[in-house]
UniProtKB/TrEMBL annotation:
Cellular compartments annotated: Membrane
Cofactor: heme b
Enzyme Commission number(s): 7.2.1.3
Lineage of the species this protein comes from: Eukaryota, Viridiplantae, Streptophyta, Embryophyta, Tracheophyta
Keywords, in A-Z order: Electron transport, Heme, Iron, Membrane, Metal-binding, Transmembrane, Transmembrane helix, Transport
Pfam families: Cytochrom_B561
Any GO molecular function: metal ion binding
Protein name in UniProt: ascorbate ferrireductase (transmembrane)
Top-rank taxon: Eukaryota
Membrane topology label: Multi-pass membrane protein
Catalytic activity: Fe(3+)(out) + L-ascorbate(in) = monodehydro-L-ascorbate radical(in) + Fe(2+)(out) + H(+)
Gene3D superfamilies linked: 1.20.120.1770
Length: 244
């Protein structure tokens, strides 16, 4: 009697593992920057309350960990999660919903305060952030309607799928690019005002965070676009090994 064993292709496992390690590195660096260097998030020209400090620290944490890391994990769901397609789509949709909520709240923490939205909406970082969260929200709604509305026909879903994948990866890449501009803007501001030296621990942490985001986005996008390999099946019959 033959026995069949199914082995997951090692390349897929290695990409997912590398993505997880990159995400862990990014999360640790973001937490280190937010909690260990809190004075960098205080306003130097006016007194800041404890609430202002909390919101200032929450902005990079929500946008990096809540938005980029979690949305990256949502992209990888179809690569590692076992089970039916409906289960994978449910987890994907929920994780993207968490990422969207984190992004919206993260932007709100930046635009709140006495100056308001208009006064803070001046830099390339802020423009890219609004564009990114708008595209992400539209992508989430379109994905929900296209893949979860029961009256949608299979042919319509097939037509929407390539655009859904493209916009998802484009928005994810845009989110990483937006985060990089934010890191550069913050670090340049701190160094120009003499609050942070060009060669110091905080500058190193922020630069490593930027490199970590580049690594993470590259691995996630590579895992998303790489072709799915067929599982290797090994059949054992009468002491002989047959592969297929």
């Amino acid at each position: 009697m033959a026995k069949v064993a199914t082995i997951l292709p090692p390349s897929r496992l290695s990409l997912v593992l590398l993505a997880r390690l990159s995400a862990l590195l990014v999360a640790l660096l973001a937490l280190t920057w937010g909690f260990y260097f809190q004075t960098s998030f205080l306003h130097h020209h006016r007194p800041s309350s404890q609430q202002d400090l909390i919101y200032a620290v929450l902005h990079p944490l929500l946008m990096v960990i809540g938005f980029i890391v979690i949305s990256g994990e949502a992209i990888l769901v179809h690569r590692w999660l076992p089970g039916s397609r409906n289960l994978k789509k449910t987890v994907h949709l929920c994780l993207q919903g968490v990422a969207l909520a984190s992004g919206i709240f993260g932007i709100w923490t930046r635009f709140r305060g006495e100056k308001g939205v208009v006064a803070n909406f001046y830099s390339l970082h802020s423009w890219m952030g609004i564009l990114c969260i708008s595209l992400f929200g539209a992508q989430w709604v379109i994905g929900f309607l296209s893949f979860w509305h029961k009256v949608e026909m299979r042919t319509i879903r097939a037509r929407v799928l390539p655009w859904h994948v493209f916009l998802g990866l484009y928005t994810y890449g845009l989110a990483v690019a937006t985060a990089e501009t934010g890191l550069l803007e913050k670090l340049t501001f701190l160094q120009a005002n003499g609050r942070v030296m060009k060669r110091c621990t905080e500058s190193t942490v922020v630069n490593c965070l930027g490199i970590g985001l580049v690594l993470l986005s590259g691995v996630v996008i590579l895992a998303a676009v790489s072709p799915k390999q067929r599982n290797l099946q090994i059949a054992y019959s009468n002491g002989k090994c047959l592969t297929s």
